[in-house]
Amino acid sequence: MYSNYEFDKTLVTCVPSPRQLAVEEMEFYAFAHFTVNTFTDKEWGDGTEPESVFNPTAFDADQWVDALKSAGIGGLILTCKHHDGFCLWPSRYTEHCVKNSPWKNGQGDIVREVSDACRRGGIKFGVYLSPWDRNCALYGQGKPYDDYFCGQLTELLTDYGDIFTVWFDGACGEGSNGKKQVYDFDRYYALIRELQPDAAISICGPDIRWCGNEAGDTRESEWSTLPASLLSPEEVAARSQTADDEEFRNLKIKEDERDLGSRRVLRYAKELAWRPAEADTSIRPGWFYHAHEDDKVKSLDKLLDIWYRTVGGNCTLLLNIPPDRRGLFHENDVARLAEMGDYLRKTFAHNLAVDAVFSADKCDGVHLPDNMKTDGYDSYYKPDDGENAVTLTVTLPQTKTVNHIVLKECIPQSQRIESYTMEVKTADGWREVAAGTTVGYQKIARFDAVETDEIRIRITDSRVCPVISFIGIY
Predict the structure, then answer these.
(1) Structural domains in the chain plus CATH codes
(2) The pairing of beta strand 28-32 with beta strand 75-81
(3) pLDDT tens digits, one per residue of 291-312
(4) Number of Cβ atoms within 10 Å of the Cβ of 314
């Protein structure tokens, strides 16, 4: 493992922005894919669908929000316009929108009702706006289409209150003129920063990155500090001539999709960027509602497996729940969300560490072990600078049944931990229940229940001294 003190000090200068931190602290939020596809039984519309097909006669955004809150979901991203180009708000820039649908006699606004329901319900609202528009004749013409797209983006960012994220995917197909649009993302980003400076720009954007699949799968080591750009082979060669490190001289630059941010990779970075991961998946096989999938809602066990790997693995979870043709979340989806929320609330209802004794084999004398009882960044534990390996012990007042350990770094001071183990004391001695590399925002270890009164977390390597904000025992 490549490491030197000056190099590692540079790595820990990379920290989250307030908008990134706000998304990471949400942990679990939702998508709602809703458009003409809901009524044509398609996943991707082609832009020729008549506006008359869109008519969710029982639409109820409060029902959506209530269902999301039952699962512990803290925000909702609405597909305000998918690739078919149909807008869920009465856009001034197109006729292909709700104002020409029979729903509410063309007087309705889905975006308005959903954003208002989110605020009433106390969850955050975000927007998805597809840059690929299969209905707009300007698509593929360069600036004229960018003007059109920025007009619609401005409508969404000025008419519907605070937006927590603007979510872009990378879909880019040919327009009716046979050309693809070269998206002016720099212009889009600047507009978002101007109109909604607190909104994260996600996936095709600088703030939140995609984990790389739509199955909720994640890497075993999901890093937040990534190379913003890499050294050229020539720069590597020049540097290696003075590096007293045979591995560095011989290691080839390549993108390892399973390792995005270890020190082995970051040593080739020209500059660094904080890019936390998001995993997106749907509660059903498809992203839009299909009646034949009513009995194919993911099981509780499957959803929990995804939740633990994402929310418990330094990654946020974006779960899609597609409204049906009535404009409601289907009963099967609603029941599963409530079941999931019940499980999570019961599992994490009581932190056994609240009344425990916290200790550490090393401490700087100011940032004490007891600071790890509070889940937040205002206080934290740290050893002296230069102490990169520490042992933390949590002693419970009495023997308890334990099957979860939660560990959080104080990420406003960067992601530092490189390796750790978690152990519980049993009648037969210490037993390892988890081990890994990254912690970052949060690592949740889930294991078979064990009777114990003492838990030990060993931080075996860090970039510089670890800074721990929270330990929870459940």
Answers:
(1) 18-218+276-347 (3.20.20.80), 225-274 (no CATH), 352-473 (2.60.120.260)
(2) parallel
(3) 999 999 999 999 999 999 999 9
(4) 27
